[in-house]
Design brief:
The structure is a single chain. This protein is an alpha/beta fold. About 30% of the residues lie in helices and about 25% in strands. Strands 1, 2, 3, 4, 5, 6 and 19 form a 7-stranded mixed sheet that branches.
């Protein structure tokens, strides 16, 4: 007999488990079906492990340059096995925390592959979930409402499969037992840039190949330019407007080789490893969508503003719907979907107000419109920029490169976008996000008295710079 629940969540990543907690807080009986480990890609193969490695790389560089701060360190040595052990300890601790939250919320967790069944003796509507564990007998779960949160996986280069040894996805790269001497990274988006930053700090010879005309093509051009400048300064070779030829790939005696076409010319890149970071594919296959009326277009589940699919009792959130493929976005979507289930509808999620973060060195973060996007929308803009080298705290920290850029509507003074590249950008961006949520003007941001010395002073200065009134510029 199928076990019944008010809400079943298919997928236990940051979208799924947050949705489950919200539902339990709303008094619903809840179950999660997770094929792997609770926490999903973010905890085990994405956000957390990659940032743990980035932190170790940054500490390694700090130690190597400790003399800059008046601290003599006779010798520095990287023990990569210890780096990986620290990463795993962080993951294990956070996973234990999620398990505790499931018990606290009385949320049942079913471990196994979940698949949506069509109408059956258990329900006249599709939606019964068949759970097939790795071992033992399967189970059936009958939800009144279903939330699909099956996430995504790395996209391979066309014609070239991941092999875990020579051609790596970001998932596989996280589990390297030793560092390569050299690596070619295909893709200069967020994932490619973070890996390039991390690996060059670990002492790896890094080349980044980006098909577009600049790194981070979805970010403001000024941010892309500064990130590329600093990566190049640290030794990363950056090839833009370059296309990798997958049919040329070969394994050599010393590693791998692949041809890259750039400006009509071919260049063969040789390295120990090839890392492909060209985006992610939604996990829509093998979960039984063919047994439903759920619509999949361009590889993503289609939903309305309430995250409801074409099946009125089925919702979808996170990477699988292909909006902003970010952990904090999936969590927000999960909360909204539960609100829609409980109350019938929800307030739309305002995606332009959600910060986007890049944890490279330098860090970069943004919220709202880029300058080009604002101009393309027909808005006459005014821009204020303040460089971190004008701040005492940035110089104290030894990270005086980069800037904060504010974009405003010249007609209304409304703040349209905030873009940061430099120290603690991923922390500072929340002030910009709050300003957009509150529909603030740059002048209003400039009225906040920021503490001194602090990196956040750059916000006040950039806000004043919008009208040419910055003090330390």
């Amino acid at each position: 007999m199928a076990r019944e629940y008010d809400i079943v969540v298919l997928g236990g990543g940051p979208g799924g488990y947050v949705a489950a907690i919200h539902a339990a807080q709303g008094g619903k009986s809840v179950a999660i079906v997770e094929q792997g480990k609770l926490g999903g890609t973010c905890l085990h193969r994405g956000c957390i492990p990659s940032k743990a490695l980035l932190k170790s790389a940054a500490v390694f560089q700090t130690v190597k340059h400790a003399a800059t701060y008046g601290v003599e360190v006779p010798e520095s040595f990287l023990r990569f096995e210890a780096v990986q052990a620290r990463k795993q300890e962080i993951i294990d601790g956070l996973e234990s925390g999620i398990k505790h939250l499931m018990k606290k919320g009385k949320i049942d967790v079913f471990h196994g592959r979940g698949s949506i069944l069509g109408p059956s003796i258990f329900s006249p509507m599709p939606g019964t979930i068949s759970v097939e564990p790795e071992e033992g007998e399967g189970e059936l779960i009958l939800p009144r409402q279903l939330i699909i949160a099956t996430g995504s996986r790395p996209r391979p280069l066309s014609g070239l499969s991941f092999d875990s040894e020579y051609v790596l996805s970001s998932d596989e790269a996280l589990n390297m037992t030793e560092l390569p001497k050299s690596i070619t990274i295909i893709g200069g988006g967020v994932i490619g840039v973070e890996w390039a930053s991390m690996l060059v700090d670990f002492g790896v010879d890094v080349t980044v190949v980006e098909y577009g005309d600049r790194l981070l093509p979805t970010e403001d051009k000024a941010v892309s330019k500064e990130v590329a400048r600093q990566l190049k300064k640290r030794g990363v070779r950056v090839l833009t407007s370059a296309g990798a030829k997958s049919d040329s790939f070969k394994i050599t005696e010393t590693g791998v080789a692949i041809d890259v076409e750039r400006n009509g010319e071919l260049e063969t890149l040789a390295s120990d490893k090839l890392l492909v970071a060209i985006g992610r594919l939604a996990n829509v296959e093998g979960i039984g969508l063919e047994n439903t009326n759920v619509v999949v277009e361009n590889g993503f589940i289609q939903v309305d503003d309430d995250f409801r699919t074409k099946e009125n009792h089925m919702f979808a959130i996170g990477d699988v719907i292909g909006r902003l493929q970010l952990a904090h976005v999936a969590s927000a979507e999960g909360a909204k979907a539960v609100e829609a289930i409980i109350h019938g509808t929800t307030t739309p999620l305002n995606y332009p107000f959600i910060p986007r973060c890049i944890y490279s060195v330098p860090e970069a973060a943004s919220v709202g419109l880029t300058e080009d996007e604002a101009k393309a929308a027909g808005i006459d803009v005014k821009v204020g920029t303040f460089n971190f080298n004008g701040l005492g705290k940035a110089r104290i920290e030894g990270e005086a490169n980069g800037f904060i850029k504010l974009i405003s509507d010249k007609a209304t003074d409304d703040l349209l976008g905030v873009h940061i590249v430099g120290p603690k950008a991923t922390e500072l961006i929340s002030e910009g996000g709050l300003a957009l949520v509150l529909n603030a003007t740059a002048w209003e941001v400039g009225q906040l008295v920021h503490p001194h010395p602090a990196l956040a002073e750059a916000f006040g200065e950039a806000a004043l710079a919008v009208d040419g009134l910055a003090i330390h510029a």
